[in-house]
Amino acid sequence: MRQYEHLQCGPDRLRVGRWRADPSVAELTSLVGTRPPERHSVEKGLELIASRGFRRVVTNALSPAEQVGYIRAGFQVHERLHLLAHDLRDIPPAPTGAVLRRGHRWDHPALLAVDAAAFDPFWRLDAAGLRDAIAATPSSRLRVARVDGVAGYAVTGRAGGRGYLQRLAVHPERHRHGIGTALVVDALRWLRRHGGTMALVNTQEVNGPALHLYRSLGFTDRPDGLAVLSFEFGS
Fold first, then answer.
1. Side-chain half-sphere of 129: how many Cα atoms within 13 Å?
2. Which band of pLDDT confidence, cut at 50, 70 and 90, is reported for residue 38?
3. Which InterPro entries match (predicted)?
4. Domain 4-81+225-232, CATH among 3.20.20.20, 3.30.1330.10, 2.40.160.20, 3.40.630.30
5. What is the Cα–Cα distance from 217 to 121, expressed in whole angstroms?
6. Residue 142: in which H helix or E strand, if any?
7. Is the pLDDT of residue 2 over 60?
8. What is the pLDDT of residues 61-84, one digit of tens each?
9. Taking the CA of residue 115 as centre, how many other CA atoms within 13 Å lie in the half-sphere pointing to its CB?
10. For labelling alongside 175, which of 46, 130, 146, 147 has CA 20 to 30 A away?
């Protein structure tokens, strides 16, 4: 997994690490289960990050309430995300065609190749990012879709009754073959089978195909939404 450093910034504890494959960009986040940081805590974190030579800082996906301290410290919105939820009651049938199987560590290079084809550079996962996505929740499931080779994959996480579609990637050459639908339906069924009561997923506001897929499978938009924030040193 990626190496993170924990920072004590006033009353708040923050976590900083490199943003995926870009060594000049840092990711600043709160620790899980802690309150959103105040402005002076974020500013202290920025001072420490600047001393380590980073030129830019981004956050994880934050709710409006979580964004306040960052915005007051000078962060701006990099990209807004839709947040969608599924109650796991009515799950549509899976399409035929794609063969799904359990994913393994030796699949990771092929999965990262699919990820690189499916996402623009800012959002692509590197090897550490994929491992982080799999390890982000107490229970997780990695599924691989094959159609003449690896065509897509999904990482689903579970914490108590809440599930998270952590990552869904389908190679652009395999769009409109039912692969995304098969992977999402498989994830929803797994969550319900293990006692889940809700599944959450976020996606870029500009990602029309993903939004259409999730809504067609019964996901509904949450009103608050999320955003990734960014801070440029020297701006």
1. 19
2. very high
3. Acyl_CoA_acyltransferase (IPR016181), Bact_Acetyltransf (IPR050832), GNAT_dom (IPR000182)
4. 3.40.630.30
5. 28
6. strand 139-146
7. no
8. 999 999 999 999 999 999 999 999
9. 24
10. 130
Give the CATH class of 88-196.
Answer: alpha beta
Query: b/e for 198-212, b at 16 or more Cβ within 10 A?
Result: ebbbbbbeeeeebbe
Q: What is the C-alpha to C-alpha distance for residues 11 and 42, in angstroms, rounded to an integer?
A: 11
116 vs 104: CA distance, rounded Å: 19
Strand 99-102 versus strand 139-146 pairing type: antiparallel
Check if 4-81+225-232 and 88-196 are the same fold: yes
Could you tell me the two tokens for 32?
């899980």
Q: How far apart are the C-alpha atoms of 170 and 159, rounded to whole Å?
A: 25
Do residues 36 and 13 lie in contact, with contact meaning Cβ atoms separated by under 8 Å? no
pLDDT band at 235 (very low <50, low <70, confident <90, very high): low
> For 21-62, what is the HEC assignment?
CEEEEEEEEECCCCCCCCHHHHHHHHHHHHCCCCCEEECCCE
- Type and span of the H or E element at 150: strand 150-159
Statement: residue 17 has pLDDT above 90: no
Tokens of 193: 């089978």
The residue extents of the domains of the chain are 4-81+225-232, 88-196
Residue 195's identity, in one-letter code, is G
pLDDT value for 1: 43
Q: How many CA atoms lie within 13 A of 46 on its CB side?
A: 24
Identity of the residue numbered 108? H
